[in-house]
UniProtKB/TrEMBL annotation:
GO terms for molecular function: aminoacyltransferase activity. PROSITE patterns: FEMABX. The lineage of its organism: Bacteria, Bacillati, Actinomycetota, Actinomycetes, Propionibacteriales. Belongs to the FemABX family. It comes from Tessaracoccus defluvii. This is Peptidoglycan bridge formation glycyltransferase FemA/FemB family protein.
């Protein structure tokens, strides 16, 4: 039978994710309630009556026109190793046309290439290397290569110059595996052994200094937000409003009471670092982080990361995801400190396939891209 795509209930959408074991939190039904400036819809892919995949489609209307960008951030949720991926993509486009979409944007959320810590460190130390993609990956996943070829064959396009944080969801991410090759959950001793010496030393220093990490409540999001804005000013980015984090907390934890957590690291009663963690099944994400300008010597950021890693591991997660990195590894790259901090955990850099667009209406799609460039 041919693959079709049609709306499904939020309950059926979530049930599929639960049965699968994990999916990006950006593809849960709850995420539509977080992104209120988009209109969200749960869709399912069907082979006859058999549900073969799901997706959260987010619609953004063009100014003055009832035409929409249909966006599936880090989705759809499919078994990308299937032999009929092309039929699923064609069904999605056909469905989007019915919804008056001028373009469809997807972001297949699975690893295509991996770089292990030793490779990353060597790349950082090599003055002739400025981007991670200049270095041979330690692993290239065949399924990713095949899906990439299918997307190109079907007429999808991607901007491979937009590997930074401005181009939708990041193509490059940093992940710490929590299970060994045989599927056994790693022990805390094994996780510590995988970290670099500096990261381990900073964890010990935080403990010696008396840094304590605890879970926070919704009301304490305001404390997190206070030092988050301090971090934004220090690091030169525009911070989100407190209301955004409160909406995120309410929506995600209404779907699952342990979906989103707040962590607070304190030293002698002073808040020195704060983070949020999101978990969907066997995948946990470090989503937002903040630290104060004072008391940086007590290493609250290392202590809080270690606690989140331990909690994700105790929950049986396969992956602790430190989210996006840029692929720049040059000494003068503005984000080099971020990748150096994350590589200290012993994790690996992972490249997804990136985000791909299908132009349903080419003139409108071209105008949309021109508008984004001018903005």
């Amino acid at each position: 039978m041919s693959i079709t795509c049609r709306p499904i209930s939020s309950e059926r959408h979530l049930d599929f994710i639960v049965s699968r074991g994990a999916a990006s939190f950006l593809q849960t039904p709850a995420w539509a309630r977080v992104k209120k400036d988009w209109r969200g819809e749960s869709v399912g892919f069907f082979d006859g009556d058999n549900l073969t995949g799901v997706g959260l489609v987010m619609y953004r209307q063009l100014p003055k026109l009832k035409r929409y960008l249909a966006y599936l951030p880090e989705g759809p949720v499919l078994d990308w190793a299937r032999s009929d991926v092309d039929a699923h993509l064609q069904a999605l486009v056909a469905f989007a046309k019915e919804r008056r979409a001028f373009a469809v944007r997807i972001g297949p959320a699975f690893a295509h290439r991996r770089w292990l810590p030793a490779t990353i460190k060597a790349a950082i130390a090599d003055d002739t290397v400025t981007r991670l993609s200049q270095v041979e990956p330690d692993e290239t996943v065949l399924v990713g290569t095949r899906v990439r070829h299918q997307l190109l064959h079907l007429g999808w396009t991607t901007d491979e110059t937009g590997h930074g944080f401005a181009a939708g969801q990041p193509m490059f991410n940093f992940q710490l595996p929590l299970r060994s090759a045989d599927g056994t959950q790693l022990t805390e001793a094994e996780l510590l052994k995988g970290m670099n010496q500096l990261f381990r030393r900073n964890i010990k220093k935080a403990a010696k200094e008396g840094v304590e990490v605890r879970l926070g409540t919704r009301a304490e999001l305001a404390d997190f937000h206070r030092i988050y804005l301090e971090t934004a000013q220090r690091d030169g980015f525009t911070g989100r409003a407190l209301a955004y984090f409160e909406e995120m907390w309410d929506a995600l934890n209404a779907e699952d009471p342990d979906r989103m957590r707040l962590y607070l690291a304190e030293h002698d009663g002073d808040l020195v670092a704060a983070t949020t963690m999101v978990r969907v099944g066997t995948h946990a994400w470090y989503s937002y982080g903040a630290s104060t300008n004072t008391k940086r010597e007590v290493r609250g950021s290392n202590a809080i990361q270690w606690q989140m890693i331990r909690d994700a591991n105790a929950a049986g997660c396969e992956v602790y995801d430190l989210r996006g990195i840029t692929e720049g590894v040059g000494a003068d790259d503005p984000e080099i400190g971020l990748i150096q901090f994350k590589v200290g955990t012993g994790g690996q850099a992972v490249a997804y396939l990136g985000e791909w667009d299908y132009a349903v209406n080419r003139p409108l799609y071209a105008a949309f891209n021109l508008y984004l460039k001018r903005r």
